[in-house]
Design goal:
Elements: H1 5-25, E1 30-34, E2 39-42, E3 51-55, E4 60-67, E5 70-74, E6 80-84, E7 88-89, E8 93-96, E9 100-103, E10 112-116, E11 121-127, E12 132-136, E13 142-146, E14 150-151
Antiparallel strand pairs: 1-4, 1-7, 2-3, 4-5, 5-6, 8-11, 8-14, 9-10, 11-12, 12-13
Length: 153
């Protein structure tokens, strides 16, 4: 025996509404960087909560949520924590994941400008949209690195 048509129609309408809500909540990843040395990450959005970590300057952090003057962030290792908005910078940095070659042009055959060790921080200047990022080392050298060789994009 089949179910009445009205129940099936209501079911599909309900499922469609849920899918529309889910699609609307999906957004692109957004990143910030720690604004200075000594930035404290907290367990909860409150300075009286447990202190989890202290960061150096320019560490890339994935933005998860905002609550008042606080940001919920995730670090490269997947750790979730809170930091004050004033401790976050919109100047973007990426963190090298493994020994990587920074090249003079966004091409695999381009001359290697320098090599960056794991955990080196590079300022993100541009995402070329071709799998290459234009980056700047703190010593001033500017070049290109493959997007899969860094975290924070």
């Amino acid at each position: 025996m089949s179910k009445p048509l009205i129940n099936r129609a209501a079911y599909y309408l309900h499922v469609g509404a849920l899918l529309a809500l889910a699609a609307g909540s999906v957004h692109a990843l957004e990143y910030r960087s720690s604004a200075r040395h000594g930035v404290i990450l907290y367990e909860a959005p409150n300075e009286n909560s447990t202190k989890r970590f202290v960061l150096s300057a320019n560490i890339p952090l994935e933005l998860i949520a905002e609550q008042g003057n606080w940001l919920r962030v995730r670090d490269r290792d997947g750790t979730l924590a809170w930091l004050a908005k004033t401790d976050a910078s919109s100047t973007r940095y990426v963190q090298v994941s493994k020994l990587a070659e920074i090249r003079v042009a966004p091409q695999p055959q381009a001359t290697t400008l320098f090599k960056a060790e794991r955990n080196v921080l590079l300022q993100l200047l541009d995402n070329t949209g071709t799998g290459w990022l234009k980056v700047k080392h703190r010593d001033g050298h500017t070049g290109y690195i493959r997007i899969e060789e860094v975290w924070g994009v």
